[in-house]
Amino acid sequence: MIHFDQFKLENGLRVFVNTDRSTPMVSLNIMYNVGAKDEDENRTGFAHLFEHLMFGGSKNIPNYDQPLERAGGENNAWTNNDLTDYYLTLPAQNIETGFWLESDRMLELAFSPESLEVQRQVVIEEFKQRYLNQPYGDLWLLMRPLAYKVHPYKWNTIGKEISHIENATLDDVKNFFFSYYAPDNAVMSVSGNISTEEVRTLSEKWFAEIPRRNVKKKALPKEPKQTEKRTMTVERNVPADVICKAWHTCARMDENFYANDLMTDVLSKGKSARLYQRLVKEKKLFSSIDCYLTGDVEENLVVVKGRLMKVVTMEQAEAAIDEELEKLIQEGVTVDEMKKVKQMAEAALVFSEISVADKALNISYYATLGNAELINKQVELYHAVTAEQIKQEAQKVFREENSNVLYYRREKK
Fold first, then answer.
1. Residues 6 or more apart from 359 whose CB is under 8 A from it?
2. Residue 51 — very low, low, confident or very high, per pLDDT cuts 50/70/90?
3. What are the angstrom distances between the C-alpha of 342 and each of 88, 338, 345?
């Protein structure tokens, strides 16, 4: 059980405090309710660009990392389709440095042409290295627009294309910042050797004067129900063929999310899972295979991705996957499988509550989803899933007309 207090500043910033006297450290996490899905389709990659810009200096602090490192701290950030998260950890006696740094970049970034140009080049180089110049790097650049035709999940966090970042102006960047990076669009959680009153005092001192920006989240288009199987075939200079299949399923806050998550675990979590046992170990059709949820806030995808052995055809590979999914649909899940995946889920949740950084992150995440108390209900919600629920979800999800398949072939020499 993670105990926390909460309060809200007049500018809309929600603050959560988990006091943990067993550590000399404090972690401060700020989660902004903005991600790639909030971008203009013709100006994508901005949320990810901001992950970089936020370290390029703020209005009154030209260098973010230097004072943090002097105070014995470390920091990082991540961005996805839904959220942007910044976090730092410091010795408790130096935590005010963290409040000072985070408040200044929430207030306003430096917005210099030099900083934009530096970070623009960093992001462009990342796009090239991670997505264009390494084997299978563009798989999700292809898969998302295959699976999504309307919803902004159809582009990756890195953006649709490099030109969107190349053409970003300083005004574009400013407008995006002041539209979303605001106290009334953020959650701050603090975990570690600090009291609620100390956090309240520091929050009032450093964040209270940042103006509310009356953030209006744009209405996102709903993805229409898919009515036919979609496929795409590409050839690339890669060592082995890969097949990637994706099916639409429920959102993160849907009551069926937990059944979907356990369903993917039954199929591929660990070497005793079905897909590994039957398709890798027994039939030797794949060198590796995985099944997972994309983990998005809105409607997710269930994904099966496997790397084929060289003698195996795409047709054989897909037929073998479909056969295993049909067994799940028809026969359901065994008692032993249910016990195993629930124990694994509980162990992962317990492990995620060990460090103050993880606790601060998880509190921010569930608070941003709308209910911070969910952090203490996850084990219960996973244990409540029945074998019948998983069977029903398999029947609902693994329909041919709901599938999107990318045949990622190695070039023929």
1. 2, 18, 20, 27, 189, 191, 353
2. confident
3. 32, 6, 5
Helical ranges in 181-273 per DSSP H: 196-207, 257-268
- Comparing CA positions, the residue from 337, 338, 333, 306 lying closest to residue 322 is 306
3-state secondary structure of 33: coil
At 145 the pLDDT is 97
Does pTM surpass 0.85?
yes
CB atoms < 10 A from the CB of 65, how many? 12
CA distance linking residue 14 with residue 346, whole number of Å: 28
User: What are the pLDDT digits (tens) for 360-397?
Assistant: 999 999 999 999 999 999 999 999 999 999 999 999 99
CA 161 to chain centre: 20
Structure-model confidence comparison of residues 354 and 245, the more confident one = 245
Angle between helices 335-351 and 257-268 (to 10 degrees): 110
- As beta bridge partners, residue 247 has 302, 403
Q: Which two tokens stand for residue 124?
A: 């462009």
φ/ψ of 197, rounded to 5, equals -65, -35
Q: What separation, in Å, do the N-terminal and C-terminal C-alpha atoms of the chain show?
A: 58
The amino acid that residue 32 corresponds to is Y
For the segment 158-183, the average pLDDT, to the nearest whole number, is 93
CA distance 243 to 286: 10
Pair of tokens at residue 223: 């993805």
Dist. CA 285–CA 343, nearest whole Å: 29
Which residues contact residue 24 at a Cβ distance below 8 angstroms, ignoring those fewer than 6 apart?
91, 92, 193
Helix residue ranges, H only, 218-332: 257-268, 274-275, 314-331
Q: What is the dihedral of CA 165, 167, 173, 176, to 10 degrees?
A: -80
Could you tell me which of 182, 194, 203 has the C-alpha nearest to residue 8? 203
Q: Phi/psi of residue 373, each to 5°?
A: -65, -20
Measured N-to-C along each axis, helices 387-397 and 335-351 cross at an angle, to the nearest 10 degrees, of 90
CA atoms of 191 and 168, how far apart (whole Å)? 37
Q: Is 156 helix (H, G, I), strand (E, B) or coil?
A: coil
Phi-psi label, residue 77: left if phi above 0, alpha if psi -120 to 50, beta otherwise: beta
Residue 213 C-beta-side C-alpha neighbours within 13 Å: 19
Hey, which residues does 84 pair with through a beta bridge? 32, 79
118-148 burial string, b = 16+ CB within 10 Å, else e? ebbebbbeebeeebeeeebbbbbbebbbbbb
